[in-house]
Amino acid sequence: MPSLPKGCFALGVALLLSACGSQAPGNAQTPASAPAPAAAPSLAATTQPPAAASATTPATSPDGQLTDSGSGDKYRYAIHYPPLPPAQAPLGAALRALGDRARRDFLAQAGPAAQHPTSAAYPWELTLDFKVVAQTPDLVSVVGQGGAFTGGAHGNPILLTVLYDARAGRTLALDDLFADPAAARRVLADAARADLLGRLEGPQDQRLGSDRKWIEEGTAPTAENYQAFALLADGGKARGLRLLFPAYQVASYADGVQHVDVPAAGFAALLKPAYRDAFATP
């Protein structure tokens, strides 16, 4: 795939944090209407948060949603977590670990930001909202989306996904679902590539801001390209997978996150026996 711009990084086995910097990858074309922004600092810094930070204690709303928020003179952040039953405490801990990492990395950059002459008018800001998007007795799918404004012409989009095995009490990477992960990724890649290439057709104002090479590289069947995904489910069983492609992976920043839905029938034969009953198949 095209190299991600400076400031982008990925996390973990069952999740992806795409905090993309503000310049497109080598073969990406910044839309003519969008001037090339200045490069944004990476969120992956490891320095300590500034001493002046005044973080609030995470608060729980009446519906159980947990919010971690805080601010300094020239920055603010808010991270929202969904209400979860006690039995899903390991999932809650995994989400908090992700949110804490994003907050620490953001605050590590907030000290230098306070010295920037435009910071007072345009404060740095981190927002992140985790939501349960699908749930069955076997699996729970969570997507976290938001952004971090760290200077430049636009914010940096953030995308995280977590799939949780409710029976085993652990998070799962895409490969964990399949007996032959490489074969499964090839099947999913074929479906994603065909769908996205079709979006290059049609009226000019409706076409995806991309090209064949960009899509082929961004959908190549590597584990890196398929870190972000969600479950599709309507009831007791999952009916498929939603493959998520963050900004710049298969298209321009302006096109945002792209998704491709793959029905379970397309990959059911490749599932591990432990997960075959979790998906509805013909």
UniProtKB/TrEMBL annotation:
This is DUF3298 domain-containing protein. Residues 175-263 form the DUF3298 domain. Residues 24-72 are annotated as: Disordered. Residues 28-62 have a biased composition (Low complexity). The lineage of its organism: Bacteria, Pseudomonadati, Pseudomonadota, Gammaproteobacteria, Lysobacterales. InterPro entries: DUF3298, PdaC/RsiV-like_sf. Keywords: Signal. It comes from Fulvimonas soli. Residues 1-24 form the signal peptide. It comes from the Bacteria.
